[in-house]
Amino acid sequence: MSADRFAIQDLAALYMRGLDRLDGALLEAQFWPDARCEYGIFSGSPADFAAFCMAALESHERNHHMLGQHLVDVSGPDEAYGEVYYQAYHRVFDDAGAARDLFIAGRYVDRYERRGGIWKIAYRSELVDWVRDDPATDGMVQTAPFILGQRKPADPLYDREAMQ
């Protein structure tokens, strides 16, 4: 796989990390500042999109985004197009305070640009293929001695010293 494809695929992984760790700066950094974001529920700039996401996800107990196939068509020396499949899990709460598991799956349709040797997203549109909203059934997660993922900076990902 070419270095260009790796660089483009890293954009998707870092984008998801920004969402899951509630790191708006990391999310925004995957886009060129003049990029366009089209999500149906949001249309605008990367800075406004990152702020929108952080506000929307703040009330969630946790989030987990999974990447599927990532097709990249490098169409020129500084332009590429992509399709990224995803599944997103959100622990949310209904109006009565009951925990719910919200799953959203779909695809991102992207255009990437390389500027100054760096690839970033120039256009992203989110297509939703299916949604599922169920009562939470993972009580064991709350009682077992699991190490749970957290948001930045509390997530173990950011404690490199503990990995020595």
Overall mean confidence score, pLDDT:
94
Biggest pleated-sheet summary: 6 strands, mixed
Number of beta strands: 6
CATH class: Alpha Beta
In the CATH hierarchy, the architecture is Roll
Poorly predicted tracts of residues:
none
Q: Helical proportion? A: 25-40%
**Count of helical regions:** 4
N-to-C span: 31 Å
Question: Would you summarize the structure shown here?
Answer:
The chain is 25% helix and 46% strand. The chain is an alpha+beta fold.
Description of the structure:
The chain is an alpha+beta fold and 164 residues long. It is built from four helices and six strands, in the order ααββαββββα. It has helices at 3-20, 24-29, 46-57, 139-143; strands at 31-38, 43-44, 62-76, 79-93, 99-115, 118-135. The chain has a six-stranded mixed sheet with strand order 2-1-6-5-4-3. Strand 5 and strand 6 form a beta hairpin. The longest helix has 18 residues, at 3-20. It is globular. The model has no long low-confidence stretch (mean pLDDT 94).
Topology, please?
Elements: H1 3-20, H2 24-29, E1 31-38, E2 43-44, H3 46-57, E3 62-76, E4 79-93, E5 99-115, E6 118-135, H4 139-143
Parallel strand pairs: 1-6
Antiparallel strand pairs: 1-2, 3-4, 4-5, 5-6
Keyphrases for this structure?
164 residues, Nuclear Transport Factor 2, Chain: A, 25% helix, 46% strand
